[in-house]
Amino acid sequence: MTLAGDSGVTLRLHWSPDSANIVVRIALEELGLAFQPVRVDRAAGEHKQPAYLALNPQGLLPVLEDGDLVLFETGAILLHLADRTGRLGPEGPDAREPQARAAFLKWLFYLSNTVHAELRTAFYAPRYVAGEAAVPALRAGLAARFRQHMDLVAGELGAAGWLAADTPTLVDFYLAVCLRWAQLYPRGAPLIAGHEIPARLRAPLRLIENRPAVIKAFADEHIGGRPLTMPEPPDLPPDEVTG
Ligand SMILES: N[C@@H](CCC(=O)N[C@@H](CS)C(=O)NCC(=O)O)C(=O)O
């Protein structure tokens, strides 16, 4: 088996601006892993074509290729990167440290199977109900749940303001991006307003958006300014913004 890093093989991140790949891109930059970005034209439906479906049969972004390995699902990719580097975040802790790993795993799964999954349902609401008329009620219910999730998370942050350790780990970056999306999408009627973000989550968000690796990751997806506390969509023609 070949892994990226073996004789010139690189990690390959399949991406589209502001899609879930931004979480993985931040993780790669923060962990100092070199990678080759592979742009997928979502607006043209490239992610539903056979070549991409061979990598992710769901036809969703992101995919990360690591040598012979092909991974999809943001949460699975983050866990793979933590195990691969032996670190849960850029400043540690060790990925095998039992307390931190347990905290990391529970928040990773919560973010992946509850928070992110519900955001997806809100963004793609018409796919989940019969008839457009039911969409506003579904979105309103999910917005209320998102606020509850953020209150819960705010109450569980450690003293230093991070979820799994005394320093930021990949789950903090995942949470931060979920907060970005909730303030931006669906376009024109976002799930929450910035002032609804619980006070305890604001300081970590500010710290994250000022980190050089995070700034670079967003910039490489055409996102500038204050991407977490005053988010704007990618600076692209409107038909290319699919995030
Ligand atoms: N559970 C998946 C969700 C990924 C996802 O929703 N990706 C979106 C972009 S943010 C996508 O590819 N959407 C295209 C589509 O639904 O057709 C993950 O975490 O990777």
Provide the gyration radius in Å: 17 Å
Shape: globular
What fraction strand? Answer: 5-15%
CATH architecture of the domain at 98-211: Up-down Bundle
Termini distance? Answer: 34 Å
Main β-sheet description: 4 strands, mixed
SS content category: alpha+beta
Question: What's the β-strand tally?
Answer: 4
Number of helices: 8
User: Spans of 5+ residues with little confidence (pLDDT < 50)?
Assistant: none
CATH fold group of the domain at 98-211: Glutathione S-transferase Yfyf (Class Pi), Chain A, domain 2
The averaged pLDDT comes out at: 96
Bound molecules: glutathione
- The secondary-structure element order is EHEHEEHHHHHH
Percent of residues in helical segments?
A: 40-55%
CATH first level of the domain at 98-211: Mainly Alpha
Q: Order of strands across the widest beta sheet? A: 2-1-3-4
Structure description:
The chain has 243 residues and is of the alpha+beta class. 45% of the residues lie in helices and 7% in strands. It has a domain at 98-211: Glutathione S-transferase Yfyf (Class Pi), Chain A, domain 2, CATH 1.20.1050. Strands 2-1-3-4 form a four-stranded mixed β-sheet, covered by helices on one side. It binds glutathione (GSH). Glutathione binds next to helix 4.
Distinctive features:
243 residues, alpha+beta, Glutathione S-transferase Yfyf (Class Pi), Chain A, domain 2, 4-stranded mixed β-sheet, globular, binds glutathione
